[in-house]
Amino acid sequence: MRSPRDFPWRTWASQVRTIVGIEARAALGGRSLVLLLLASLPVLLLGARALFGHGRTPAQIPEDEVIFAVLYRTLVLRLVVFFGCVVVFTRLFRGEVLDKSLHYYFLAPVRRGVLVTGKYLSGLLTALVLFVPVTAVSWLLLYVPLGAHELVTRVTSGQGIRHLLAYCTVTALACIGYGAVFTLSGAALRNPIVPAVGILVWESLNALLPPLLKKISVIYYLESLCPVPLPIERIAILATPSSPAVAVPGILALAAALLVATSYVVRRMEILYGTE
After folding, report:
1. Taken in order 17, 94, 87, 212, is the CA torsion positive or negative?
2. Distance (Å, rounded) from C-alpha 204 to C-alpha 272?
3. Which residue of 11, 21, 24, 272 lies most exposed, with the fewest beta carbons within 10 A?
4. Distance (Å, rounded) from C-alpha 178 to C-alpha 74?
5. How many Cα atoms sit within 13 Å of 67 on the Cβ side?
6. Is the pLDDT of residue 76 over 70?
7. What does the alpha-carbon distance between residue 87 and residue 31 come to, in Å, rounded to a whole number?
8. Computed over its alpha carbons, how large is the radius of gyration of the chain?
9. Looking at the predicted structure, is the pLDDT value of residue 43 above 70?
10. DSSP code of 5?
11. Rounded distance, CA 5 to CA 163, Å?
12. How far apart are CA 180 and CA 256, in angstroms?
Protein backbone atom coordinates (compact mmCIF):
# COMPACT_ATOMS: atom_id res chain seq x y z
CA MET A 1 0.00 0.00 0.00
CA ARG A 2 1.36 3.39 -0.99
CA SER A 3 2.05 5.87 1.78
CA PRO A 4 1.02 9.54 1.51
CA ARG A 5 4.65 10.39 0.79
CA ASP A 6 4.46 8.38 -2.44
CA PHE A 7 1.84 10.73 -3.88
CA PRO A 8 3.07 13.84 -5.74
CA TRP A 9 0.85 16.28 -3.85
CA ARG A 10 3.78 18.12 -2.33
CA THR A 11 5.49 18.43 -5.69
CA TRP A 12 2.32 19.73 -7.33
CA ALA A 13 1.70 22.18 -4.48
CA SER A 14 5.28 23.45 -4.77
CA GLN A 15 4.90 23.87 -8.53
CA VAL A 16 1.61 25.75 -8.07
CA ARG A 17 3.26 28.11 -5.58
CA THR A 18 6.13 28.72 -7.99
CA ILE A 19 3.78 29.44 -10.90
CA VAL A 20 1.66 31.76 -8.76
CA GLY A 21 4.80 33.63 -7.69
CA ILE A 22 6.00 34.03 -11.28
CA GLU A 23 2.60 34.98 -12.69
CA ALA A 24 1.61 37.29 -9.84
CA ARG A 25 4.71 39.43 -10.36
CA ALA A 26 3.86 39.83 -14.03
CA ALA A 27 0.06 39.88 -13.63
CA LEU A 28 -0.44 43.61 -14.00
CA GLY A 29 2.33 44.17 -16.54
CA GLY A 30 1.46 46.52 -19.37
CA ARG A 31 -2.23 46.33 -18.49
CA SER A 32 -1.76 47.78 -15.01
CA LEU A 33 -2.97 51.23 -16.08
CA VAL A 34 -6.14 49.82 -17.65
CA LEU A 35 -6.91 47.76 -14.55
CA LEU A 36 -6.21 50.59 -12.14
CA LEU A 37 -8.37 53.01 -14.12
CA LEU A 38 -11.16 50.46 -14.28
CA ALA A 39 -10.94 49.71 -10.56
CA SER A 40 -10.91 53.41 -9.68
CA LEU A 41 -14.25 54.22 -11.35
CA PRO A 42 -16.56 53.51 -8.37
CA VAL A 43 -14.06 55.10 -5.95
CA LEU A 44 -13.90 58.28 -8.03
CA LEU A 45 -17.68 58.43 -8.42
CA LEU A 46 -18.45 57.92 -4.74
CA GLY A 47 -15.49 60.10 -3.77
CA ALA A 48 -16.98 62.97 -5.75
CA ARG A 49 -20.34 62.34 -4.08
CA ALA A 50 -18.65 62.37 -0.66
CA LEU A 51 -16.84 65.60 -1.51
CA PHE A 52 -19.89 67.50 -2.73
CA GLY A 53 -22.71 65.70 -0.92
CA HIS A 54 -22.30 66.86 2.67
CA GLY A 55 -25.38 67.56 4.75
CA ARG A 56 -27.04 64.16 4.53
CA THR A 57 -28.66 62.85 7.71
CA PRO A 58 -28.92 59.38 9.30
CA ALA A 59 -32.59 59.33 8.28
CA GLN A 60 -31.38 59.02 4.68
CA ILE A 61 -29.33 55.87 5.30
CA PRO A 62 -32.01 53.54 3.78
CA GLU A 63 -31.93 55.68 0.65
CA ASP A 64 -28.11 55.53 0.60
CA GLU A 65 -28.24 51.74 0.94
CA VAL A 66 -30.47 51.47 -2.13
CA ILE A 67 -28.20 53.86 -4.04
CA PHE A 68 -25.19 51.68 -3.29
CA ALA A 69 -27.11 48.50 -4.09
CA VAL A 70 -27.90 49.86 -7.57
CA LEU A 71 -24.39 51.24 -8.08
CA TYR A 72 -22.77 48.02 -6.91
CA ARG A 73 -24.77 45.81 -9.25
CA THR A 74 -24.45 48.04 -12.31
CA LEU A 75 -21.00 49.59 -11.99
CA VAL A 76 -18.96 47.30 -9.75
CA LEU A 77 -20.25 43.85 -10.73
CA ARG A 78 -21.28 44.31 -14.36
CA LEU A 79 -18.53 46.70 -15.41
CA VAL A 80 -15.51 46.84 -13.10
CA VAL A 81 -15.29 43.22 -11.95
CA PHE A 82 -16.57 41.71 -15.21
CA PHE A 83 -14.21 43.55 -17.55
CA GLY A 84 -11.42 43.39 -14.99
CA CYS A 85 -11.71 39.59 -15.05
CA VAL A 86 -11.73 39.67 -18.86
CA VAL A 87 -8.43 41.56 -18.83
CA VAL A 88 -6.79 39.50 -16.07
CA PHE A 89 -7.88 35.97 -16.93
CA THR A 90 -8.06 35.84 -20.73
CA ARG A 91 -4.39 36.77 -20.94
CA LEU A 92 -3.29 33.87 -18.72
CA PHE A 93 -2.99 31.61 -21.77
CA ARG A 94 -4.00 33.74 -24.74
CA GLY A 95 -1.55 36.47 -23.77
CA GLU A 96 1.32 34.01 -23.61
CA VAL A 97 0.40 32.59 -27.01
CA LEU A 98 0.49 36.08 -28.50
CA ASP A 99 3.76 36.80 -26.70
CA LYS A 100 5.17 33.45 -27.94
CA SER A 101 6.19 32.43 -24.43
CA LEU A 102 3.75 29.65 -23.52
CA HIS A 103 6.08 26.94 -24.83
CA TYR A 104 8.48 27.57 -21.94
CA TYR A 105 5.85 26.24 -19.54
CA PHE A 106 5.07 23.33 -21.85
CA LEU A 107 8.75 22.34 -21.96
CA ALA A 108 8.97 22.30 -18.17
CA PRO A 109 8.17 19.09 -16.22
CA VAL A 110 4.81 20.45 -15.05
CA ARG A 111 1.46 18.75 -15.49
CA ARG A 112 -0.98 20.80 -17.53
CA GLY A 113 -3.57 20.65 -14.75
CA VAL A 114 -1.01 22.04 -12.30
CA LEU A 115 -0.20 24.81 -14.79
CA VAL A 116 -3.88 25.73 -15.13
CA THR A 117 -4.31 25.78 -11.36
CA GLY A 118 -1.25 27.96 -10.81
CA LYS A 119 -2.20 30.44 -13.53
CA TYR A 120 -5.81 30.65 -12.36
CA LEU A 121 -4.78 31.25 -8.75
CA SER A 122 -2.38 33.98 -9.81
CA GLY A 123 -5.15 35.71 -11.77
CA LEU A 124 -7.55 35.26 -8.87
CA LEU A 125 -5.02 36.78 -6.46
CA THR A 126 -4.64 39.80 -8.75
CA ALA A 127 -8.40 40.24 -9.10
CA LEU A 128 -9.03 39.92 -5.36
CA VAL A 129 -6.29 42.40 -4.48
CA LEU A 130 -7.77 44.91 -6.92
CA PHE A 131 -11.52 44.58 -6.58
CA VAL A 132 -12.26 43.56 -2.99
CA PRO A 133 -10.56 46.69 -1.52
CA VAL A 134 -12.34 48.81 -4.16
CA THR A 135 -15.66 47.39 -2.97
CA ALA A 136 -14.84 48.14 0.67
CA VAL A 137 -13.60 51.67 -0.02
CA SER A 138 -16.63 52.45 -2.19
CA TRP A 139 -18.99 51.28 0.56
CA LEU A 140 -17.18 53.43 3.13
CA LEU A 141 -17.29 56.50 0.88
CA LEU A 142 -21.06 56.13 0.68
CA TYR A 143 -21.37 57.19 4.32
CA VAL A 144 -18.73 59.94 4.40
CA PRO A 145 -21.34 62.69 3.79
CA LEU A 146 -22.99 61.70 7.08
CA GLY A 147 -19.96 62.92 9.02
CA ALA A 148 -17.19 61.16 10.93
CA HIS A 149 -19.34 60.16 13.92
CA GLU A 150 -22.08 58.56 11.84
CA LEU A 151 -19.49 56.89 9.61
CA VAL A 152 -17.80 55.24 12.60
CA THR A 153 -21.19 54.26 14.03
CA ARG A 154 -22.21 52.73 10.72
CA VAL A 155 -18.97 50.81 10.31
CA THR A 156 -19.04 49.43 13.86
CA SER A 157 -22.72 48.46 13.85
CA GLY A 158 -23.67 44.84 13.33
CA GLN A 159 -25.77 45.53 10.25
CA GLY A 160 -23.07 47.74 8.72
CA ILE A 161 -20.40 45.09 9.14
CA ARG A 162 -22.71 42.42 7.70
CA HIS A 163 -23.41 44.55 4.64
CA LEU A 164 -19.72 45.31 4.09
CA LEU A 165 -18.68 41.66 4.44
CA ALA A 166 -21.53 40.57 2.17
CA TYR A 167 -20.53 42.96 -0.62
CA CYS A 168 -16.85 41.97 -0.33
CA THR A 169 -17.83 38.28 -0.40
CA VAL A 170 -19.95 38.79 -3.53
CA THR A 171 -17.04 40.55 -5.22
CA ALA A 172 -14.71 37.68 -4.33
CA LEU A 173 -17.20 35.11 -5.66
CA ALA A 174 -17.58 37.15 -8.85
CA CYS A 175 -13.81 37.02 -9.34
CA ILE A 176 -13.87 33.25 -8.75
CA GLY A 177 -16.76 32.59 -11.16
CA TYR A 178 -15.93 35.02 -13.96
CA GLY A 179 -12.24 34.21 -13.59
CA ALA A 180 -12.87 30.54 -14.34
CA VAL A 181 -15.11 31.44 -17.30
CA PHE A 182 -12.47 33.66 -18.91
CA THR A 183 -9.59 31.33 -18.12
CA LEU A 184 -11.37 28.69 -20.19
CA SER A 185 -12.25 31.08 -23.03
CA GLY A 186 -8.67 32.40 -23.11
CA ALA A 187 -7.29 28.88 -23.42
CA ALA A 188 -9.86 27.51 -25.86
CA LEU A 189 -10.50 30.40 -28.26
CA ARG A 190 -8.34 32.54 -30.49
CA ASN A 191 -10.52 35.58 -29.88
CA PRO A 192 -11.96 35.39 -26.33
CA ILE A 193 -13.41 38.91 -26.59
CA VAL A 194 -16.33 37.68 -28.72
CA PRO A 195 -17.66 35.24 -26.07
CA ALA A 196 -16.96 37.89 -23.39
CA VAL A 197 -19.33 40.27 -25.17
CA GLY A 198 -21.91 37.50 -25.51
CA ILE A 199 -21.66 36.65 -21.82
CA LEU A 200 -21.97 40.34 -20.92
CA VAL A 201 -25.18 40.65 -22.97
CA TRP A 202 -26.60 37.49 -21.36
CA GLU A 203 -25.75 38.68 -17.85
CA SER A 204 -27.12 42.17 -18.55
CA LEU A 205 -30.44 40.76 -19.77
CA ASN A 206 -30.83 38.56 -16.69
CA ALA A 207 -33.68 40.67 -15.26
CA LEU A 208 -35.72 40.07 -18.43
CA LEU A 209 -35.18 36.31 -18.64
CA PRO A 210 -37.70 33.69 -17.49
CA PRO A 211 -36.98 32.30 -13.99
CA LEU A 212 -35.47 29.08 -15.34
CA LEU A 213 -33.07 30.87 -17.70
CA LYS A 214 -32.06 33.34 -14.98
CA LYS A 215 -30.37 30.48 -13.17
CA ILE A 216 -28.05 29.84 -16.13
CA SER A 217 -25.91 32.83 -15.27
CA VAL A 218 -23.38 33.92 -12.68
CA ILE A 219 -25.03 37.27 -11.96
CA TYR A 220 -28.26 35.62 -10.73
CA TYR A 221 -26.43 33.91 -7.87
CA LEU A 222 -24.27 36.95 -7.12
CA GLU A 223 -27.25 39.27 -6.87
CA SER A 224 -29.04 36.76 -4.65
CA LEU A 225 -26.22 37.23 -2.12
CA CYS A 226 -26.35 41.04 -2.08
CA PRO A 227 -27.60 42.27 1.31
CA VAL A 228 -29.89 45.06 0.03
CA PRO A 229 -32.58 44.14 -2.53
CA LEU A 230 -33.27 46.42 -5.44
CA PRO A 231 -36.60 48.20 -5.96
CA ILE A 232 -38.81 46.03 -8.14
CA GLU A 233 -38.55 47.04 -11.78
CA ARG A 234 -41.74 47.04 -13.82
CA ILE A 235 -40.09 45.36 -16.77
CA ALA A 236 -38.25 42.76 -14.70
CA ILE A 237 -39.45 39.16 -14.54
CA LEU A 238 -39.45 38.12 -10.89
CA ALA A 239 -37.71 34.99 -9.68
CA THR A 240 -37.04 33.68 -6.20
CA PRO A 241 -33.47 34.61 -5.17
CA SER A 242 -31.10 31.73 -4.63
CA SER A 243 -30.23 30.93 -1.02
CA PRO A 244 -26.59 31.30 0.12
CA ALA A 245 -26.49 27.54 0.71
CA VAL A 246 -27.07 27.09 -3.04
CA ALA A 247 -25.43 30.19 -4.50
CA VAL A 248 -22.00 29.91 -2.86
CA PRO A 249 -21.40 26.18 -3.52
CA GLY A 250 -22.90 26.64 -6.98
CA ILE A 251 -20.38 29.31 -7.99
CA LEU A 252 -17.50 27.30 -6.50
CA ALA A 253 -18.65 24.14 -8.28
CA LEU A 254 -18.98 26.03 -11.57
CA ALA A 255 -15.45 27.38 -11.20
CA ALA A 256 -14.09 23.90 -10.44
CA ALA A 257 -15.87 22.40 -13.45
CA LEU A 258 -14.58 25.12 -15.77
CA LEU A 259 -11.02 24.63 -14.52
CA VAL A 260 -11.30 20.90 -15.21
CA ALA A 261 -12.48 21.76 -18.73
CA THR A 262 -9.59 24.20 -19.11
CA SER A 263 -7.12 21.49 -18.06
CA TYR A 264 -8.62 19.21 -20.72
CA VAL A 265 -8.19 21.94 -23.36
CA VAL A 266 -4.62 22.77 -22.30
CA ARG A 267 -3.58 19.10 -22.27
CA ARG A 268 -4.49 18.97 -25.97
CA MET A 269 -3.13 22.38 -26.85
CA GLU A 270 -0.41 22.59 -29.49
CA ILE A 271 1.86 25.59 -29.90
CA LEU A 272 1.56 26.87 -33.47
CA TYR A 273 2.77 30.45 -33.25
CA GLY A 274 2.97 30.80 -37.01
CA THR A 275 -0.83 30.53 -37.38
CA GLU A 276 -1.61 33.25 -34.84
Report:
1. negative
2. 36
3. 272
4. 16
5. 14
6. yes
7. 8
8. 21
9. yes
10. G
11. 44
12. 8
Per-residue pLDDT band for 184 (boundaries 50, 70, 90) equals: very high
Backbone φ and ψ for 203, nearest 5 degrees, come out as: -65, -35
Q: What is the DSSP letter of 146?
A: G
The secondary structure of residue 70, as a DSSP letter, is H
Are 166 and 222 contacting, i.e. CB atoms less than 8 angstroms apart? no
Neighbours of 218 (CB within 10 A): 25
**Nearest alpha carbon to residue 182 among 133, 216, 218, 131:** 218
Question: Mean per-residue pLDDT for 238-265?
Answer: 89
Residue 89: count other Cβ atoms within 10 Å of its Cβ. Answer: 31
If DSSP states are collapsed to H, E and C, what string results for the chain? CCCHHHCCHHHHHHHHHHHHHHHHHHCCHHHHHHHHHHHHHHHHHHHHHHHHCCCCCHHHHHHHHHHHHHHHHHHHHHHHHHHHHHHHHHCCCHHHHHCCCHHHHHHCCCCHHHHHHHHHHHHHHHHHHHHHHHHHHHHHHHCHHHCHHHHHHHHHCHHHHHHHHHHHHHHHHHHHHHHHHHHHHHHHCCCCHHHHHHHHHHHHCHHHCCHHHHCCCHHHHHHHHCCCCCCCCCCCCCCCCCCHHHHHHHHHHHHHHHHHHHHHHHHCCCCCHHHC
Q: How many CB atoms sit inside 10 A of residue 83's CB?
A: 16
- Interatomic CA distance for residues 185 and 167, integer angstroms: 27
pLDDT at residue 262 tops 70: yes
Whose CA is closest to 87, among 39, 53, 51?
Answer: 39
Q: Given 3-state DSSP classes, what are the helix, strand and coil percentages for the chain, each rounded to the nearest 5?
A: 80, 0, 20
| Cα–Cα distance measured from residue 80 to residue 130, given in angstroms and rounded to the nearest whole number | 10
Residues 187 and 93: their CA atoms lie apart, in Å, by: 5
